[in-house]
């Protein structure tokens, strides 16, 4: 394993650690499916299914084939073979301990640990953009995918974390982590979030 693989493997494990994504992976392993078909099979809304598929595609487990306005998803031909190869030997497992150059693997977790107290409340909202992004990502994952939150309900949840719910609400919208319409908010797919720099979009 080279120095980049521990990060990739962590992303793979995160992608697999979700019941709905495992079901979707099983379905596309049988044959190609459209988002509409998959949404019906797993009884989820299409935007939620698209979000899960985007995560699976990002780590190389599924492929996407456009056909007009329809996207067809299938299991990536070599995905399982590659995963098995990485984990088939003691050396492959040991290679997961390699730390890539740059920031530590658990950088975002360290930010959360620094800014969130034992009671689950934010000690402060980070001023640094990248650290603020990590806290917002942690925060928005407290909200259910596919659920709509009236502003009063959203504020009540945010106030459990920090007194400045207005800033948190504004930042979640600004980073495209949540959307708002007519006083109702909902969580957006991660592949559409504004990235840590605040200038682009996450792949």
Please outline the helices and strands:
Layout: H1 5-16, H2 19-30, E1 33-34, H3 35-42, H4 46-58, E2 62-67, E3 70-75, H5 79-87, H6 90-94, H7 107-115, H8 129-140, E4 149-150, H9 151-159, H10 165-174, E5 178-181, E6 184-187
Antiparallel strand pairs: 1-3, 2-3, 4-6, 5-6
Helix pairs in contact: 2-4, 3-4, 7-8, 9-10
Write a compact overview of the structure shown.
The protein is mainly alpha-helical and 203 residues long. It contains ten helices and six strands. The chain is 49% helix and 12% strand.
Describe this structure in words.
The chain has 203 residues and is mainly α. The chain is 49% helix and 12% strand. The protein has helices at 5-16, 19-30, 35-42, 46-58, 79-87, 90-94, 107-115, 129-140, 151-159, 165-174, and strands at residues 33-34, 62-67, 70-75, 149-150, 178-181, 184-187. Helix 2 (19-30) packs across helix 4 (46-58) and helix 3 (35-42) crosses helix 4. The relative contact order is 0.11. The model is unreliable at 1-7 and 99-105 (pLDDT under 50).
CATH class of the largest domain: Mainly Alpha
- Count of discrete alpha- or pi-helical segments spanning 4 or more residues: 10
Strand order of the largest sheet: 1-3-2
- DSSP strand content: 5-15%
N-to-C span = 24 Å
- Please summarize the sheet with the most strands: 3 strands, antiparallel
Radius of gyration: 19 Å
Order of helices and strands: HHEHHEEHHHHEHHEE
